Amino acid sequence: MASSISIKNRSAFHEYFIDDTYVAGMVLLGTEVKSLREGRASFNDSYCIIHKGEIWIKSLHISPTPMVR
User: What's the rounded Cα separation, in Å, for the pair 1 and 19?
Assistant: First the structure.
């Protein structure tokens, strides 16, 4: 089962002229998926680098999902 989560950085479109956009996938582990579905991500100060033909996002903060007992 594949699901799609769309994340947009609204302030980037407000502060910069965006020439091109790309659609990309991310490799996520366990609780990161649930946190993203709940909107617990922050793009503040994040950026991407290209390393060996792959794009890596740096300084993206994904808050952990609170543990329910």
Answer: 33
Would you state the torsion angle of the CA atoms of residues 8, 10, 14, 17, taken in this order, to the nearest 10 degrees? 0
- Statement: residue 52 has pLDDT above 90: yes
Domain boundaries, the chain: 27-64
- Is there a contact between 35 and 62 (Cβ–Cβ < 8 Å)? yes
Q: Is this structure's pTM higher than 0.85? A: no
CA distances from 11 to 1, 15, 33, 47, 58 (A): 32, 6, 23, 13, 17
Helix (H, G, I), strand (E, B) or coil at 3: coil
pLDDT exceeds cutoff 70 at 38: yes
